[in-house]
C-alpha cells in the first residue's frame, strides 16, 4: 500500500511539472532561504541548469565562479551570472533549458536587467524573492562554530547586507513579473509548490 501511494504521488508530481524553458531567478537578502529554495527547485523542475552565487558573510558580499573562467571567482556577481545564463539559453537543445539563477539581485536595476536578458533571449521569465524572518536567518549564523569576535563580525555583515537589500515593490512585481515569499525557511516544501505553480501559470 505504501509503495502504491508513493508511485501515485510521483505520477501526480510528474503530471504537474512539465518541461518548459526560460529564466527563473531566485533572489533575496542573505540567509533568507534562496539557496535552499533553489536547491529544492533544481530537483523539482526538469531540464534545469542552476547557476548559483555564494553568500559570504565573512566579507558581507557574494562570490560567483563563471563557467567560462575556471578558477576565477568574481565579486561582481549579477552581471557575470547573467552572462552565463544567456549562454545557457542560447545553447541549442532539443528541449529548451530552464536556467535557474540564485543570487541576491539586491536592487531594482539589477532585477530589471535580468528581465531584459530574458526578453532579449525570447525566454520565459519569473523572479522569485525569497525572504525569511530575521530571527530564522540569524539562527543560521548562530549555528556556525566560530570565535565570539568572528561571530559578532558575521552578525554585523548580515545586518549590513540586509539593510543594503532593496525589497521588491508592488509595481516592480507586476512589471517584471515577480513573486515574493516571506516564510521560505519555515515552509520550504510549500514554497516550492507555489513557485512551480507560479512558473507554469506564466
Describe this structure in words.
- The chain is α/β, with parallel strands linked by helices and 202 residues long.
- It has one domain: P-loop containing nucleotide triphosphate hydrolases (Rossmann fold), CATH 3.40.50.300.
- Helix content is 49%, strand content 16%.
- The protein is built from eight helices and seven strands, in the order αβαβββαβαβαααβα.
- A five-stranded parallel β-sheet has the order 2-5-1-6-7, sandwiched between helices. It has a two-stranded antiparallel ribbon with strand order 3-4.
- The chain is globular, with a radius of gyration of 18 Å.
- The protein starts with a helix and ends with a helix.
Could you give me the name of the CATH homologous superfamily?
P-loop containing nucleotide triphosphate hydrolases
Unreliable runs: 1-19
Query: End-to-end distance, in Å?
Result: 37 Å
CATH topology grouping: Rossmann fold
Please give the order of strands in the largest beta sheet.
2-5-1-6-7
Short description, anyone?
The protein is an alpha/beta fold and 202 residues long.
